[in-house]
Amino acid sequence: MAAIDETILLNGISLGDRRAFDEIYNQYHSDIYKYVFKFVKSSDCAEDLCQEIFLKVWEKRESLADVRSFRAYLFTVSKNHIFDFLRHASVEQSAREEILYASRELKNQVEDSIQSEEYYQHLQKVLDQMSPRNREVFKLCREMDQTYDEAAEVLGISRNAIKKHMVKTMKLLKCSAQKSFGLSFNSLLSAYILFGI
């Protein structure tokens, strides 16, 4: 699509032109869907988020006439919306379950559920004592299965910063697991995944 055509479309959308909005939607939907899917690993969830993202664009349509790069604007809106979703997913049961089923299968079930619950509570307590940023990085990289690059994109920080947060967090968790239970960190993490995503 030529830049001048897109500018015309954006001007039209800013004035409430539904047809212009439909053209922009059709132009960018596929790219935004793929971008969202990388983070949520669920087709249904990705589609729902896409609809919400484009709804946000429509609700703020009056400002589109001043947007120089709509693609950059749209991906910024998408990134912020995904991050909001991932933050809330940590406390919403339905979102936790959907991400759990879509992102991975639990291959190793912890045999003793009472003991596993104790492990989970301990790990959660350690995580709660960490900085909010360390918790965010841990949730994205270990619970949501994001790569360092994907987590860096969501949080708006460098890949190296993500790596430093993860190294610090993993070291703390490993030491805590060994000191409190004589366990490997993987055993403790299995309980956390089973009970707490």
From TrEMBL:
Protein keywords: Sigma factor, Transcription, Transcription regulation
Biological processes, Gene Ontology terms: DNA-templated transcription initiation
Keyword Transcription regulation tagged: yes
SUPFAM superfamilies: Sigma2 domain of RNA polymerase sigma factors, Sigma3 and sigma4 domains of RNA polymerase sigma factors
InterPro entries xrefs: RNA_pol_sigma-70-like, RNA_pol_sigma-70_dom, RNA_pol_sigma70_bacteroid, RNA_pol_sigma70_r2, RNA_pol_sigma70_r4_t2, RNA_pol_sigma_r2, RNA_pol_sigma_r3/r4-like, WH-like_DNA-bd_sf
Superkingdom to which the source organism belongs: Bacteria
Membrane-spanning ranges: none
Ranges of residues in domain RNA polymerase sigma factor 70 region 4 type: 123-173
Residue ranges occupied by any RNA polymerase sigma-70 region domain in the UniProt entry: 24-89
Pfam families, sorted: Sigma70_r2 (PF04542), Sigma70_r4_2 (PF08281)
Gene Ontology MF terms in the entry: DNA binding; sigma factor activity
Protein family per UniProt: Belongs to the sigma-70 factor family. ECF subfamily.
Name of the protein: RNA polymerase sigma-70 factor, ECF subfamily
